Every structure is written in structure tokens, then in C-alpha cells.
Amino acid sequence: MVKTKKINKGVKNKKPTSSGQRFAQYEDRSSLNKIKPKKSLLTFQKNKAGRGYGKISVRHQGGGVKRFLREVDFKRTDYLGQNAQVLDLQYDPGRNAHLALIKYDNGKQSYILAMDGLEVGDKIICDEKTPNKIGNRMKLKNIPQGITISEIEVKPGKGGQLVRSAGGAAISESGEGKYIQVRLPSRERRLILGECFATIGQVSNISYKLLKIGKAGRKRLKGIRPTVRGSAMYPKAHPHGGGEGRSPIGLKYPKTPWGKPAFGVKTRKKKKYSNKMIVKRRK
Fold first, then answer.
1. Taking a C-beta distance cutoff of 8 angstroms, is the pair 97, 89 a contact?
2. Largest separation between any pair of C-alpha atoms in the chain
3. Would the pTM count as exceeding 0.85?
């Protein structure tokens, strides 16, 4: 019996001309327009490669291809009540979700996060209360229970902060006074002010989690440098280092390179200000 390779929707495979290409799976961008991005909405940020003042503060970062940052409007409150038309759906090298270029009635254009199912030519709007349509943005207190939402504000006027990555989706549940209970993708239930805005729909590029890197070169193009095991280092470089051959850790519990407990240790502050907003913690 010949084994056939499973092909997932939204993912494409290349001919297995090498070991890297054989197992790699790429994003299918056939639904996106291959045109240059809006020049006035581009910025450039220098790559710090995980270094501050010349010292490494974040490990395993460096290299990567140069890319422009798209200025994404996470608020959409500057033109409340104005209709906007989706001009284009584009790929963004700086994030895993796709972007939508929209144009308001007054002629202004901006980038927003594209929701799954949003198409070129669709009309969307941001207001205190809008129809329950994919891409529309309104206040949480006006969103019916059980509706899928994303790009949620935590503080009114600060812009969407929660549920912004590819395929992300939260669910608006019950209301408790001025707060609305929201179930996040991590299964955490959290209370959020009803005055905060949220976008209706699920963030685009759902199949992103199915992609396979396939080879080391793609990791380097993303700006990710190799990760070395602590047990492979010498004693001065890591608490796990040293010993002859394949040695065990030799400690009561695993540690980070700086001697702190690692693997499964809770790092959240016990008296964090937002603890009172969490109804049920994630598992």
C-alpha cells in the first residue's frame, strides 16, 4: 500500500527535491493580491537582534531578512460611524495574520487585521453598535452572547490587545454589570469592560499552525538563531553543563542559565492588578 501525504487546506507542498523541501509545508497565499503595499503606511524599524546597549538581553535572535513594518490600525475609532470598503487583502511579513487595506468614505486609507471570511469589496464599519457582520467593530456591551470576536481592547481607547494572532477567536459570554465575561482562546474566562471595543469574527490565516518549517534556513530567515541545550555546555555557561558524556542535570530541579527554576514554574505575580478580572484561569 502506497502512503499518501495528507495535504491540509490553506497549506501547500513543494516537490520533494531535497530533504528540506520534502517535509516543509508553506502557506497558500493564492487568495491574497500580489501587489506592493501602501507606501504611506510603511515604517522601518532597525533589527536589534536581541541586544540592548550591545549586550544580549534576548537569546537566539539575530539575522533575518529586512522588512518594512505595516502601520496597523488596532483602534479604528478615529472614523466612528463611517463606512469603509475593503480594497485589498495582503500578506504581512511582520505577523502571522493577514492584513486588509480599507478605504473610508472620506478617502482615508488604513491597514486593519483581516478576519476569516472577509473579501475584497466588503463594506465594514466601526461604531458603538453595528450589525453582527464579520469585520465590523463595536463595543463589547452591544455584542450578543455567543458571538465569535477578536482584537479585543483591555482598556478603553488603547486599541485591540487581546486575540490578534492568526486563527485567534474569543467568545463573548455573559454580562455582569459594567463588565462582560469573555472566553479567550486559552480557555481563560476574563471580565472586560463593556466600553471596550472588539471586532466580530476570527482572525485570518487559520491554517498557520499547520505549517512545517522543514529546514534550518527558513528559521534563520525569520531571525531565529540556533538553540543549544544547557547539558551540552560547560559548567560556567549553564547550571546543567559539565560532566563526562551524557550526564543528568544533577540538580533538585531544572534551572535557567541564570539559576532560576525552569519548566512549569509559575512566573505570574501573585498580586497582579488584573487577577480580580480573571474568573477562571487557563489550564
1. no
2. 71
3. no
The CA distance from 83 to 78, in Å, is: 12
CATH superfamily, region 228-276: Ribosomal protein L2, domain 3 (4.10.950.10)
Q: Compute the distance between CA of residue 170 and CA of residue 280 in angstroms, rounded to an integer.
A: 14
Pairing, β 170-176 against β 179-183: antiparallel
Cell of 92: 504581512
E-strand spans in 5-151?
11-13, 25-27, 42-43, 51-52, 55-56, 69-70, 83-90, 99-104, 109-113, 123-125, 137-139, 148-150
Residue type present at position 202: Q
With a cut of 60, say whether residue 220 has pLDDT above it. Answer: yes
Q: Is the pLDDT of residue 161 over 70?
A: yes
Q: Which of 93, 114, 115, 97 is nearest to 42 (CA)?
A: 93
197: its cell numbers: 471595543
- Residue that the C-alpha cell 474566562 belongs to: 189
State yes or no: pLDDT of 8 exceeds 70. no
Is CATH 1.10.260.40 what the domain over 39-208 is classified as, yes or no?
no
User: Cell 487568495 appears where?
Assistant: 31
Give CATH 2.30.30.30 domain extents, the chain. Answer: 39-208
Spacing of C-alpha 49 from chain mean position: 20
Residue 114 is placed in which grid cell? 483581516
Numbered ranges of CATH 4.10.950.10 in the chain: 228-276
Cell 491540509 locates to 8
If you average pLDDT over residues 45-63, what whole number do you get? 87
When pLDDT is averaged across residues 129-155 and rounded to a whole number, the result is 90
